[in-house]
Each structure stands twice: as C-alpha cells, then as structure tokens.
Write a structure and sequence with these properties.
The complex is a heterodimer of chains A (about 200) and B (about 90).
Chain A: H1 2-19, H2 26-29, H3 32-49, H4 53-57, H5 68-84, H6 92-99, H7 105-116, H8 118-146, H9 150-155, H10 164-171, H11 176-199
Helix pairs in contact in A: 5-6, 6-8, 6-11, 7-8, 7-11, 8-10
Chain B: H1 2-17, H2 25-47, H3 49-53, H4 55-84
The chains are: A mainly alpha (about 200), B mainly alpha (about 90).
C-alpha cells in the first residue's frame, strides 16, 4: 500500500509539473521514456532470470492449481468484454490491453502510453491501481463468498509483492506458494498480452 | 514494441548467466526506474490539455474496467475453488 502511494505521488507530481509547464519542454520530444522503459524491461528480466529459487519452489504445488493464472486471465478478459459494451469510445482491444495489466500498473501504463498514447495510458494506470486497491480492501469478502483462491486471482500480477501479505492473512499460509507462483506467471504475461492487444 | 520484450528476454538470459551472484540491487534499481517513468508519464498527462479536461471521464472508465476485470477473475477463482476444495493445496 505504501509503495503504491509513493508511485502515485510521483505520478501526481509529474501531472502538476506538467500542468504548470514547470519542466524543460524538450523532455517530451526526445522520447526518453522509451529508453528508460527498455532499461526497465532489461532489469525486470535480470531479476526473473537471477532467481532460480522461484522455479524450484513450484514443484511442491498442487497440479490442479497450475491453472490458477489461466482462471485470472480468462475471468479478467470476460469481465472486460462485458463492460466494453458500455464504453462506447474505447475499442475492445483497448479495453483488453488495459485489463491485461492485471494490476501491474507501472509496466502496463508505460507500455500502453508508448503505443496507444497518453489517454489510454492514464486509464491503464488508474484502472490497475484500482484493481490492487480493491484486492487489498476486499480480500476478506472475496474469501468468504468465492473461496480462498479469489483474492489471488483478484490480485493478478501483484500477488508476489504488494498484495502477498494480505493474501497470506486472509487465505492462510498454505496459499503462500500458490500466491507467489501465480504472481510470477502473471508478471511474465503482462508485457506479452499488453503489447499483443495494443498491436491489434 | 517488440524491442521492449526483446529487452526483457535479453535480461532473463543475462540474469540466468549471472545466477551465481545474487544481484540484490536490481530490485532497488527497478523501483527507481519505475518512479522516473511515472514522473515522465505524469508530465505527459499534465502537459496534455485534452487529457486533463477529461480526467474525470478517464477515471470512471478506469474504474469500470478495474471492477469488471476483478469481479470476472474472482468468479473464475470461485469455479476453480469448487474443483480443488477439500483437496490439500500443497503436498
């Protein structure tokens, strides 16, 4: 929660500086963010490849729960599909690109800004932050009505970092490995699905 | 955009080759890059008058997408839960 507040405050600071033109205008012309994005993706890759323990832990997983990330993906897409009929000025692929952030707001908003512009990028940022906040707030309710896997699917790509503590608290310690496995797989899918739906 | 994914895959290879060394600072570095990128995204949003004028609408659209996506995955989690319930989760 604290982490997302810090990130949000960086965004808000940027917005204020932008409104009052309190920055050298050339920054936006040189597309600096694209190069920083490439550096970010390279570093994210390093952090995945450098952590072999994350692969080994998964051997103790109940084989049926291998499909949990698939449930998250399908459920999100169907939900987004349903609501896209009400969003008249967004195409289905734009909606799916935003939904495929799965709560990974930093990466998805940056990727979407790069290929679809700042308007959809802002939606992606807000929407995916909201998804994380909803998971943090309503995890106990989700467990009560939809079972112990519900907050894991709701958390999307965040279940191995920001929403991990709340999942362990509401679903129980038995679900810690499932949560990490799920977050790991989802983290990995975000750049692929987001760029895929942006390119449609 | 595929350059971005290529960067990630290159990173995975490099990270795997360096797996003997624990690169602990990489997470700190990632966080700083994310801060920088969101500051830049904020600048772009703030400097774009159309986006600023529509901020309320964009927020509502964002909320609808977030709510639908979360509910959809919660329902699907419930379906899988019906299958795996009563069976131990980790051996």
């Amino acid at each position: 929660m604290k982490g997302s507040l810090i990130i949000l405050s960086f965004f808000a600071t940027g917005v204020l500086l932008g409104i009052y033109r309190f920055f050298p205008q050339e920054i936006l012309n040189y597309n600096i963010s694209f190069y920083v994005l490439c550096m970010l993706m390279f570093s994210v890759g390093i952090s995945i490849g450098n952590d072999p323990s994350s692969f080994q832990q998964f051997r103790t997983l109940n084989p049926r729960l291998i499909f949990l990330p698939l449930m998250t993906i399908l459920g999100t897409w169907l939900g987004v599909l349903a609501v896209s009929f009400f969003l008249k000025n967004r195409t289905l692929s734009e909606c799916l690109a935003v939904g495929s952030g799965f709560g990974y707001y930093s990466l998805s908003s940056i990727l979407i800004t790069q290929c679809k512009g700042v308007e959809l990028g802002t939606i992606a940022l807000l929407s995916n932050i909201m998804r994380e906040v909803m998971t943090l707030l309503f995890a106990p309710w989700m467990v009560r009505y939809f079972g112990k896997l519900a907050p894991i699917c709701a958390g999307g790509a965040t279940t191995m970092d920001t929403t991990f503590p709340i999942i362990v608290r509401t679903s129980g310690k038995d679900y810690a490995i499932v949560s990490i496995y799920h977050g790991f797989i989802m983290d990995f899918t975000v750049p692929f699905f987001v760029t895929f739906f942006c390119s449609l | 955009m595929f350059i971005v994914i290529a960067c990630m895959i290159a990173g995975i290879v490099v990270g795997y080759l360096l797996r003997q060394r624990r690169l602990r600072y990489i997470h700190r570095f990632i966080l700083i890059l994310i801060w920088l990128l969101l500051l830049l995204l904020g600048l772009e949003v703030g400097a774009n008058e159309t986006v600023i004028r529509q901020f309320g609408t964009l927020g509502l659209e964002a909320f609808m997408l977030a709510f639908a996506g979360t509910m959809g995955s919660v329902i699907f989690a419930g379906l899988l839960w019906l299958v795996v319930r009563n069976k131990s989760v980790s051996k």
